[in-house]
TrEMBL record:
Record keyword Transmembrane helix present: yes
Gene Ontology cellular-component terms listed: membrane
Species of origin: Ceratobasidium theobromae
Full protein name: MFS sugar transporter
Domain (Major facilitator superfamily (MFS) profile): residue spans on this chain: 245-683
Subcellular location: Membrane
Substrates-to-products reaction catalysed: myo-inositol(out) + H(+)(out) = myo-inositol(in) + H(+)(in)
Length: 726
């Protein structure tokens, strides 16, 4: 009875000055429907739901009328929220009822993409040319209260507008009103404006211009409309901004590389050795490995910090800790103070080595993600180069304690730059969504990924991020046990920890840390010079790889190549050292050169395999709720093996000489088969699509909806003038 009265008043109040009554009638119906169903409808609409509906509709070339019908229905039925309850068996954003033939199985009603496609499919069958958007919605929904949909038109328009696009329509009020006499006007929102006004309002750098298919009788699409009216394309800044941000964040990698390189050569400096009383091999091992111990703790701590204060602030915390550690090392007056500085610097490097790739992966476009995250390894290598040449220059040109204090002190400069610079860069959009700051997240994502023509893709990406995080929150779990409590998560965790361990199994860090004494073992008279040249080779190859190859060849093939080639290089190195000992009366210069060449080839191979891939791979395979913990666990694994090899390598090289290399030959062979058998390829997938790869998919992936679902013949619709205008 109350439903009938509300609908009666909505029909009765058609006079322009009494339109408010129509909304009162609709509000009454909605309120009573909600109460009758025992399902609370949120007061506001869900942006991610709206973005998904629009993305699917635009991929199907939906007309303006159908777009309005979709959003009128979404608002009336659920306030554009994906409800898991409703009247009787009604579900989803359109409150579709499986008992009436919608959705099979019924859970598909909660899949926004599927529900939208079902709505459009039915609209194709029932549309008539003279229907208003509300009448089309009623024809699809077959509601007992048909007036609700037309009454919601203004709200539907406001939702579409709020989603970010400026609706541009030629001529009159509907998609069929396209005539030559109207070509001098455009419609933006509810009213027409003159062409010169449109030009005035749309300037370079603005985004959000969309064109309805069929609005132009002869020319179609966004670019055609812009050319038709002489408008200016938006400035395509997404990739430039994205790259700038990724490279700046990679200063964390520079600090990592500099610290690794500086200690290698400082330990060989005669003024350093004299100042600290020629420390024993055990003490030198402690100086090296305590950094890695601090890194282990820092990486573990960073997981909690990244989720609590965000990725951006965690980068800043890491840089502040680095400044403190640097001051202690530079001012050290005894080995204890030096080790304390190394531990604190290690905390910083642990935080930065964990958070930098994670932040880079979360801000990156899937098409560029390998390159973006690869800049971490690139800056790491660049830091190693700078450290090598600074220490080499100080060793040759500076006398006294300044020869080692200055290189240690210069670490403060990049740390200060990183801390201050991150104030002007954004938070991770995925972290913002997890905090409920969706509008801010969309704005950041737009700056990062919008290129002036991919609004549909951007909306689909945002919708997928929002729904994935929402579903993960419903699991109400975010503990360390989540890393191992299901088979897919256990597989992720083992692979992530494995790839970081395999990076250490390559033996490259042993070469980096103890290269000079390895060159001396080959009979080289100036090992510091060779080490400085060695440091340049890796970053050159890494840069070539991340620019031209990583996002083409993927992740798995480079890892297989790296394990195989590094095993071969170290096997040859073993043979050279065994056959031509450095203390022989007639050293073989050719053998010495070949031995050095093997180290150079090893760093080249590492730089096109484990160097850039390991950090990227770890950060991209985990879902949002466990990403920080997963990356932290993997990074801790890296540093645990770093500590192990850093502490034992001086002893191994001293006591076993060339036989020590055989350990890494065997470890590389083991890594090869593990990667071959168990590692999946992740190239080109969004972070939200990784769940499908590992077998624990929780949402239908929205980016699939950016591709046309089907091709429809013009004869299958009733409206004239546009192929998909129903």
């Amino acid at each position: 009875m109350l439903y009938t009265l509300a609908d009666y008043f909505a029909h009765l109040c058609t006079h322009p000055y009494l339109n408010i009554m129509k909304f009162i009638g609709v509000a009454a119906v909605l309120g009573l429907t909600s109460l009758a169903a025992g399902c609370t409808i949120p007061a506001d609409w869900d942006r991610s739901v709206g973005a998904t509906i629009r993305s699917v509709a635009k991929s199907r070339n939906a007309s303006q009328r159908l777009m309005l019908a979709l959003f009128e229905t979404a608002w009336v039925e659920s306030h554009a929220n994906n409800l898991n309850c409703g009247d009787r068996d009604s579900l989803g954003v359109f409150q579709q009822r499986p008992s009436q033939g919608w959705c099979s199985p019924s859970s598909l009603c909660l899949d926004i993409k599927h529900a939208t496609n079902e709505f459009i499919d039915k609209a194709v069958r029932v549309a008539k040319s003279n229907m208003t958007p509300g009448q089309l919605a009623q024809a699809v929904q077959v509601s007992a209260y048909p007036a609700r949909y037309d009454a919601a038109e203004s709200k539907a328009r406001s939702i579409i507008s709020a989603l970010g696009d400026v609706q541009v329509t030629l001529g009159g009020s509907g998609p069929n009103d396209v005539t030559n006499r109207h070509k001098h006007k455009c419609r933006i929102g509810p009213g027409p404006i003159l062409i010169h006004e449109l030009k005035h309002r749309f300037r370079p750098g603005q985004t959000g211009l969309a064109v309805q298919q069929g609005d132009l009788p002869e020319e179609r699409g966004r670019s055609a409309c812009l050319q038709h009216f002489g408008l200016v394309e938006p400035f395509k800044m997404g990739m430039f901004y994205n790259v700038s941000l990724a490279v700046f964040a990679a200063i964390g990698g520079f600090l990592f590389g500099y610290d690794s390189g500086v200690i290698t050569n400082v330990l060989e400096n005669k003024y350093f050795l004299s100042y600290f009383g020629n420390p024993s091999e055990d003490l030198i091992g402690a100086v090296v490995s305590t950094l890695a111990g601090g890194c282990f703790i820092g990486a573990a701590f960073a997981a909690w910090l990244a989720d609590y204060i965000g990725r951006k602030r965690t980068l800043q915390v890491g840089s502040l800790i680095a400044i403190i550690g640097c001051l202690l090392q530079c001012a050290a007056v005894n080995v204890g103070m030096l080790i304390a500085g190394r531990i604190i610097a290690g905390l910083a490097i642990g935080v930065l080595s964990m958070i930098t790739p994670l932040y880079q992966v979360e801000i990156s476009h899937p098409k560029w993600r390998g390159f973006m995250a690869g800049t971490f390894q690139q800056m790491l290598g660049f830091g190693f180069i700078v450290a090598n040449w600074v220490t080499y220059g100080c060793d040759k040109g500076i006398h006294g304690v300044a020869a080692w204090r200055l290189p240690l002190g210069l670490q403060m400069a990049p740390a200060v730059i990183l801390f201050l610079g991150m104030f002007i860069f954004p938070f991770s959009p995925r972290w913002l969504v997890a905090q409920g700051r969706e509008d801010e997240a969309y704005s950041v994502l737009e700056k990062l990924h919008f290129d002036g023509s991919n609004r549909e893709w951007l909306d689909a990406e945002f919708a997928e991020i929002c729904e994935q995080i929402r579903r993960e929150k419903e699991m109400k779990s975010s503990s360390l046990m989540d890393l191992v409590n299901t088979k897919p998560m256990l597989k992720r965790t083992l692979i992530a920890c494995g790839v970081q361990a395999f990076g250490q199994f390559t033996g490259i860090n042993v070469i980096n840390y103890y290269g000079p004494r390895m060159y001396r073992a080959l009979g080289i008279s100036d090992p510091l010079l060779i080490q400085s040249i060695y440091g340049i080779v890796g970053p050159i190859w890494n840069l070539f790889f991340i620019i031209f190859l990583v996002d083409r060849v993927g992740r798995k093939k480079p890892l297989l190549f790296g394990s195989f080639m590094l095993a071969a290089c170290l096997a040859v190195e073993t043979a050279i050292n065994a056959s031509f000992p450095p203390d022989s009366p007639n050293p073989n210069k050719t053998a010495q050169g070949a031995g050095v060449a093997m180290f150079f080839i090893a760093t080249s191979v590492f730089s096109v395999s484990y160097g850039p891939i390991a950090w990227t791979y770890v950060a991209e395979i985990f879902p949002m709720r466990t990403r920080a913990m997963g990356v932290s666990a993997a990074t801790c694994t890296n540093w645990a093996f770093n500590v192990l090899f850093g502490q034992t390598s001086p002893i191994g090289l001293e006591n076993s000489a060339w036989k020590y290399y055989l350990l890494f030959v065997c470890l590389n062979v083991f890594s090869f088969f593990m990667v071959l058998l168990f590692f999946p390829e992740t190239k080109g997938k969004t972070l939200e699509e990784m769940d499908e790869l590992f077998g624990d998919q929780v949402v239908a992936h929205k980016l699939d909806g950016t591709k046309p679902q089907m091709t429809m013949r013009a004869s299958s619709v009733h409206d004239a003038g546009t192929k998909h205008d129903f």
